[in-house]
Amino acid sequence: MHLGHVEVFHMDECLDWEGGDLPRSHPYSFRGFMERHFYDPVDPELAVPEGNRYWPDPTRLGQLTQQLLATPADLAYGGWGQDGHVAYNQARRHPFSQLSVQQLRQSTARVQENNVDTVVALAQRTFGGAYQLVPPMSVTLGMREILSARRIRLFSDTGAWKQTALRVGLFSPVTAEYPITLLQEHPDALLTATVETATHPISLHPEWDLGLS
Q1: In CATH, what is the architecture of 8-204?
Q2: Any coiled-coil ranges, and where (predicted)?
Q3: CA distance 199 to 191
Q4: Which is it for the CA torsion 137, 141, 147, 153, positive or negative?
Q5: Which single residue of 119, 122, 198, 208 has CA 20 to 30 Å from 138?
């Protein structure tokens, strides 16, 4: 199949402490990963043309937003984070600048500091807990661009790291604390998970007294 007609808008990327690009060899360089595992294995004559690969460049985010809102994506494909973040739309933790559901819903592409819980989760996942090695900033498309897609498909196979976010995404009212809950408002969104990710330890231990009733 020739992929010359395909356009790919990459949703997020990790940045260093100055908001700059990471080396492509860095474990959290999403561009490096996609180039090695998604683009490079395909015959160049059949692959998605380089001009059709849109990376979240902090210097042209307004242009990406305009493109995606003018012509919504056919498919938004990805996963979710430990706090239910979609792309890098994290739950905002700033004590003096809280985020409403409506603000989250209307959020667009931006550069931001990564939350402490995101840094800790990524450190545990990849660096044996060495949080000092985790990129402290990121760039992301906003929920407005993502929710404009005709179809949304999110998948996770990372077990305990995503179990609570999945349950909240499925059963909680919409809340800015878990951005994934906004997918409940989308006409064609699907969450897929492994059995391990869909199984929550709290549901397996009715004898625990956690004050949840």
Answers
A1: 3-Layer(aba) Sandwich (3.40)
A2: none
A3: 14
A4: negative
A5: 198
